[in-house]
Amino acid sequence: MPIQTVAIISPGEMGCAVGKALKSGGLDVIASLSGRSDLTRERAKEAGIQEVSGIAGLLGKADLVLSIVPPAAAVDIAREVASAMTASGYIPPYADCNAISPNSTRHAGQAISEAGADYIDGGIVGPPPGEGKPPRFYVSGERADLMAELDGMGIDVRPIGSEVGRASGLKMCYASLTKGTLALQTAVMIVAEALGLSDELHKELLFSREAVYRQIESGAQRLPSVSERFMGEMEEIAATYSAAGVTPKFHQGALDVYRLLAGTPLASETPDTIDTSRTLGEAARIFVERLPMR
Fold first, then answer.
1. Could you confirm whether domain 5-163 is CATH 2.60.40.10?
2. In which band, very low, low, confident or very high, does the pLDDT at 51 lie, cut at 50, 70 and 90?
């Protein structure tokens, strides 16, 4: 049957943006907002997402479920949804679109499949819809074709095979480079500040690596606000590397950097309240103040 109603569990910044894009594409979008913040409720309302009570309520109305949640919660939420499927008898296809390892997505898929629903492994690459190029939704699994109806609705759906784990694996590889690099760049600035070498390093980077410097400058402003979410992602990436026989220590180190940022006052900022006038040097000094030996 054609997809008309999509349920999003549980819409944050990315989920609300995806919901808005799908709504603009002519679909009905629903979500359960119980326990969510006022900011999330405002975003969901602005996106045209209809609130439905409880997971069973979502399952009874949805033609497709998209899970877009923090990585650390993905498997537990899949199991919770699977239990609701078993209890209610409603079994719409379930696409896990989270930044989790291939092993984690297999655990989530096992729970959903045992409940009788089709499971799609997904990984989102790129910013939310409306912020430049459409995000790429890489999907894999025997029923990955079900996501094709969403292609072009503010997102770019890219099937990459019938094996669950391929889409998540690609997401892990991509994020290990992008977010791992951001963590390294931030660590460099923290060390330079701790050594009293910030001015000298900034001048050298502006002279020889200006594009890199501008990336670091942008990251210093926004990374604290997303650092807690990135922590779970680094754990999943480290697990992916370890399972492939490659050292997980790069991203265990990145996890430590994001944990440091999450402990700063800047972590309470939201995308709407980030102080864009804050300089790289000012951010580095705040980060240094939170170093364990300080």
1. no
2. very high
